[in-house]
Amino acid sequence: PDERIKGFNQIRESLSFIEKKVLKIKNEWDKEKDSGTSIQRVMDNIDVLYSDVLALADKTAASIEVAENNVLQGKKYKNLGDTRFREAQLALKRKDFIKTESKIPEASNAYLTSLTFQEDEAVRRKYSQLISLSRTLESEKNAIAIREYRRLMELGKELYANSLYEEAYDANIQAQEVWNSTKSEENPENK
Hints:
Distance between the termini: 57 Å
Order of helices and strands: HHHHH
Structural class: mainly alpha
Number of strands: 0
Strand content: under 5%
Helix content: over 70%
Largest sheet: none
Number of helices: 5
């Protein structure tokens, strides 16, 4: 996850800093050793370096903890998304469109939440499959609506032919309502 990368970048920067400090101490030690003077400054630098190393260890531990938590949260929401995706697929197979329509956004939200915790190409692919499932749902709903529309229109024609004008009109209105429930454009079959 992104947080782990940030943590490791912090480690790299800190190690570079420590390397420079150690080199400085080594150079000072060499000077002090040759001059025969006190090594107190060297010891002070070592104390500063030690504090920096401890701070680095704490930052690293915190970064790793955040990264591990993100991985766990990402997996949790991916699993939830997978469960809702399967539920949507099964509902669609049973032609339970209402349940399918409720499970698709739940799966979508879970996948998107997973991606906020951890970038994962597999989750992105599942999200794309979810979009495809949504299109399949709309296609199946439209096919059923068109069949129902045609049935109602035929019924209206039969009723009209039998001089049952009011019932024919009601069948025509029902057919238009079915069409309008899935289509935004005017029905070309009505022209």
